[in-house]
Design a protein that fits this description.
single chain, alpha+beta, Ubiquitin-like (UB roll), DNA polymerase, domain 1, 5 strands, about 35% helix, binds FE2/S2 (inorganic) cluster, iron-sulfur, metal ion binding, oxidoreductase, oxidoreductase activity, acting on the aldehyde or oxo group of donors
Length: about 190
Amino acid sequence: MQTSTSSEITLDVNGEEHALSVDHRTTLLDALRERLDLTGSKKGCDHGQCGACTVLVDGRRTVACLQFAVAAEGREITTVEGLAPEGGALHPVQQAFLDLDGYQCGYCTPGQICSAVAVIEEHAAGWPSAATDDVRPESGASSLTPEEIRERMSGNLCRCGAYVSIVEAVARAADERAADERGAAASTEEAAV
Ligand code: FES
Ligand code: FES
């Protein structure tokens, strides 16, 4: 029921629509965790400072503790539970974190992984960061160096200090994505000959 302090909304989460009645002050993080039982996104600081609650909203990184659920209506929300393709395989970023021990206690890991997925796409799209030396468009794409990864992932804190392995995992996933893209481009060229 809609009141002056609550609304009926529909959230599109991981490809499924969920109808909810929410108080206007309910954060997206609380709606995901408390109402939809999607507890992968973690509450660390609840103040937008640790990144543990990071989810993707229309493909962009968002700290869900600072977003009101009502403001997320009509947006495509992806949580760590929705990253893996159907069929059992993990998302390449999840697999890289697993293979390279990109975690210790794991509390920050869902946020790190969601953030890394978006970081890799942001970099592939040519978005510069504060660590990018030359931001002129004609200078071409920079490589995703450890320094770039540390800068772009700086909103995600890890109290266990697993940063060395996290940077390695993000770098491996980015390399795999780049190799896949080169492979797809080569196949398209071959098909055109
Ligand atoms: S819980 Fe959202 S940024 Fe820390
Ligand atoms: S793995 Fe424990 S906080 Fe990051």
